[in-house]
Amino acid sequence: MNKLLHNLFELDSPESAGTKLQLRVFELFTVVYTLYYSWEWAYYIQRLSDVILPLGLANYIDVEFFFETNLAFVNAGLITVFILVPLITKRLRWTYAPAFVLFHIQYVVRFSQGQIPHSSNLIGFSLLGLALGGVFIRDIKRALPFAFGFTIFFTGLAYTSAGVSKLIASGLTWPDGYHLWLWIGEKSVDLLSRTSELQLNPIQQLALSSRFIATLILLSGILTELSAFLLWWKKFRPFIFTLLIMMTFGIYVTMNIFFKAFVIEFIIIGYPWNRFVNYLLNYSNTIKFKAASRWLLY
Amino acid sequence: MVTERVKKILLITILINIVLVATHKGEFWPFSIFPMFSISGQPFLRGVVEEVENIDRPNLWRVKPLYKIEERVISLQEYGINPFDFANYIKKTKYWDAEKINGLRSTFQIECYSDKMWMITRVKGFFNDDNEIVIYTYPMFLLTGDTTYKNPNLSTIAKIDE
User: Fold this and answer.
1) Which positions in chain A touch B65 (Cβ < 8 Å)?
2) Among A224, A238, B143, B152, which residue's Cβ finds the most Cβ atoms within 10 Å?
3) What whole-number distance in Å separates Cα of residue A106 and Cα of residue A109?
């Protein structure tokens, strides 16, 4: 147990500029995407009129009053303040906690229409990690590595859980290529509805031409998902994150769904950039960087 | 060194995760069992909107294969509508009262496009007996700037399941 926790929460050279830079880029990315989603959803909420499927706190609060008012914009404004303050000042890190709660509310209001997307869950885990670190650890030197490890832990858990869910719901025949054919048909209708165009790309045509190839595509996907818990160990991390990135592109070409935020975050947290930056700094003039790091890092 | 505090925070969060997903059908954002694409081989239900030019055409309310209306399907993206929300709205609504229909009109802001006539259409895809995918479309409502026309067989279409 302790070895696993060490793999998750202890970073190499924690006091080095490379490690601090990687952690701050992770924090910046989380803040940018939280802002992006909060404001995008605020604009969309204005078009909604009815709760079809209550999620999360919407099971306990009637969120329909958001539809008739500008509250979604007020909420986005509050989230903005609560996440920019700790990012810029590096203090008052507990304000990530109210930001997380308000972000949850923004999500359940926006996605009250029956669709349950998981594209923002990783950002949610990152923000929750920052919030828990801000409230219970406080000191940025320990809170940021905690949020980083927390996100990696839940990324591994989420993907492995996705793989297990498939086996529980459909059994060992889940990777049968026929199933991919049906999903390609379904996603093509979604694409037609979105863009008014229906055209299969070469990968989709290839998958539809052979049940065996379609089966191989699904098999590689579920094996990648099931192995995602290996992210918890440092030595497997770059390899598994590379597989997850490849799988994300595979989902894009076969089903027209692209998890852009996931790919960017995997690139940021999945590789030992800290070592690379430290190596570069050892061989270059660091005076300017040292001056900038006082403001950018911690 | 990883402190006891870090260990405690992680374990409590995992526990909260388990309790929340177990009591909320697997979803309490950001916690989830991540069930996407877990049920395989099932027919699918989606939605498209067909642009209609002639309200008097004889096959207006008939069930048709998707390829027959493909050319006339409008891009929801151009009107700022999320196709998944739209598909879920028509998929999950079993009883179409005035409130539900008005919700549809308000999402489409059809009053702003008085020269348009849009057919709200359910789509069902499934394997036929020869293991080929077939996709059929089921017209539900025709929205115009000032009127909503209902398919005479709406109650049957609204109950089509996946």
Assistant:
1) none
2) B143
3) 5
Q: Is A263 helix (H, G, I), strand (E, B) or coil?
A: helix
Tell me the β-bridge partners of B136: B65, B124
Q: Are A254 and A211 in contact (CB under 8 A)?
A: no
pLDDT in tens, A255-290: 988 999 999 999 999 999 999 998 888 877 666 677
First to last CA, chain A: 30
Contact B37 A166 (CB under 8 A): yes
Q: What angle do CA A185, A51, A101 make, to 5 degrees?
A: 100
Please give the residue of chain A at the shortest CA–CA distance from B30. Answer: A121
This prediction has a pTM of 0.89
CA distance A128 to B16: 13
A137, A162, A181: residue with CB nearest B36: A162
Helix H or strand E segment including A2? helix A2-9
The interface pTM score, or ipTM, of the predicted complex is: 0.92
- Rounded CA separation A30/A130 (Å): 9
Hey, are the CB atoms on A178 and B41 less than 8 Å from each other? yes
Return the exposure string of A242-264: e unless at least 16 CB atoms fall within 10 Å of the residue's CB, then b.
ebbbebbebbbebbbbebebbbe
Give the number of A-B residue pairs with CB atoms closer than 8 Å: 182
Give the chain A residue whose CA is nearest to the CA of B88. Answer: A114
Closest residue to A118, CB basis, from B32, B40, B89: B32
Scan for tokens 């999903």, then name that residue.
Answer: A183
